[in-house]
Specification:
By secondary structure, this protein is mainly β. Strand 1 and strand 2 form a beta hairpin. The termini are far apart.
Length: 71
């Protein structure tokens, strides 16, 4: 959640293309083979999740960092 958020007690969960939750902070090893002149698309989803009792409504903004290693 960013500092501009007014909602309390929320976090963000990330999911892969199969709907499986991706554990944040752990190295996730996923491979995608693409040719030298092809494009690859990563599919997934993100959703807000209540992480504390007494969560409150309000604006909810989040940002994150994704690191891709190309070999």
């Amino acid at each position: 959640m960013t500092a501009a958020s007014t909602a309390k007690g929320l976090g963000v969960a990330l999911f892969d293309e199969g709907g499986r939750e991706i554990e944040l902070g752990l190295q996730s090893i996923r491979f995608m083979s693409i040719g030298s002149r092809e494009q690859g698309l990563l599919h997934g989803a993100a959703a807000f999740r209540r992480i504390a009792d007494g969560s409150t409504a309000g604006t909810a903004n989040a940002e994150g960092q994704l690191t891709l290693i190309y070999r």
